[in-house]
Request: fold
Amino acid sequence: MADPHHADHDDYQRGTMEISEQVATWKLVQVLFSWGSLGISVLLLMATIWFCTPAGFFAGLIAGVVLFAAGFFFLKSGSSH
Reply:
């Protein structure tokens, strides 16, 4: 009995498959990882300064805003390529 999964194995030709959906998915994954990493870094910095130093909440907030602004600028400038 013939295996239906391997019946048309000669039909595939390297380099002819449409991969636009895979490219779009990979770009989305990169964007989510980049912005997610920035968000986690901002929250971690804010919490560390707030709870682990005597500087307090407002120092943590200021540091978080500065880090977010730098990350925002960096991520936006890199997305034009």
About this structure: The chain is about 70% helix and 0% strand. The chain has a mean pLDDT of 87.
